[in-house]
Amino acid sequence: MIHYPVLLKETIEYLAPKNNEIYVDGTMGMGGHTAEILEKSKPDGRVIGLDWDEEALALARERLSVYGDRLRTFRRNYAEISECLKELGISKLNGIVLDLGMSSYQLDLSSRGFTFKGSEPLDMRMDNRGKTTAAELLNSRSADELADIFFYYGEERQSRRIAARIVEERKNDRIETTDRLAGIVAQAVPKRFHPKKIHVATKVFQALRIAVNRELENLKNILDEAPALIVPGGRLCIISFHSLEDRLIKWKFREHSSFNILTKKPVIASEIECRENPRSRSAKLRAATIK
């Protein structure tokens, strides 16, 4: 399948990889950013690639095998970078890259319920070793708990109406598939409140994915830890795809005195990139050096 690493040129410019330095791609996915870092840091730059999606990691390992021992990979979440460094005997990094978006593989081919196109199991776990699926959340949480998830993680204004409808519907039968959930959301929200540019269930699906994978907690943890993991002058580059992530990154960059912000405003994709890869339209890159 065709792989489009988002904001690749801009990310590499801010990261500025060099020979003999060590970098982490904390969300390796299909390996687009990893490959470019390895190319720019020839002949002896190294990358530690992390991804908790087993299938994506296997594909990336095969694709990047030409780089040999310059690349080490781990099936880990990026919030576990410090544990990986301890295992490798590495004290500091020269930079970290995170692309917080969903890959085309995960959305189109994983069959884990990240998209409401078709009918898939409501799983949504990035790592299938995780205990809680989206279906388990939907069928066990109270209406108030579900409404909070939809409102705080999806910024869904119809959260209470949707949550109440879900609780009513699951009395008849467990909600287990993406098409059934999408249908319930569409029925719960009055037509006048259906958005024009996105599916009415988009924010609910986003919220469930964030909750299942503890995405905001993981992002907060790495933003707090990064200054201790990266050498002075080293760089942290993060690509986010929705306002919750972008606000958290912006606040943490300002809050920590260790960060010297390189991007006063987030960098967005060019018109050409947006045409070639529509998923890049919502991408925002923020970068900082460590003082």
Protein model, in words:
The protein is built from 13 helices and eight strands. The protein has 291 residues and is of the alpha/beta class. Strands 1, 2, 3, 4, 5, 6, 7 and 8 form an eight-stranded mixed sheet that branches. α3 links the parallel β2 and β3. The model has no long low-confidence stretch (mean pLDDT 94).
Short description:
The chain is an alpha/beta fold and 291 residues long.
List keywords for this structure.
8-stranded mixed β-sheet, 291 residues, globular, 15% strand, 13 helices, alpha/beta
Helix residue percentage: 40-55%
Structural class: alpha/beta
Number of helices: 13
Strand content: 5-15%
Large-scale geometry = globular
User: Which residue ranges are poorly predicted, with pLDDT under 50 across at least 5 consecutive positions?
Assistant: none
Please compute the radius of gyration using only Cα atoms.
20 Å
In N-to-C order, the SSE pattern is HEHEHEHEHHHHHHHEHEEHE
Roughly what is the average pLDDT, rounded to an integer? 94
Major sheet, described briefly?
8 strands, mixed
Strand elements, count? 8
Question: Could you give the topology of this structure?
Answer:
Layout: H1 8-15, E1 22-25, H2 32-40, E2 46-50, H3 54-63, E3 71-74, H4 81-88, E4 93-99, H5 104-108, H6 134-140, H7 143-154, H8 159-169, H9 178-188, H10 202-213, H11 215-229, E5 230-240, H12 243-255, E6 259-261, E7 267-268, H13 271-276, E8 284-290
Parallel strand pairs: 1-2, 1-4, 2-3, 4-5
Antiparallel strand pairs: 5-8, 6-8, 7-8
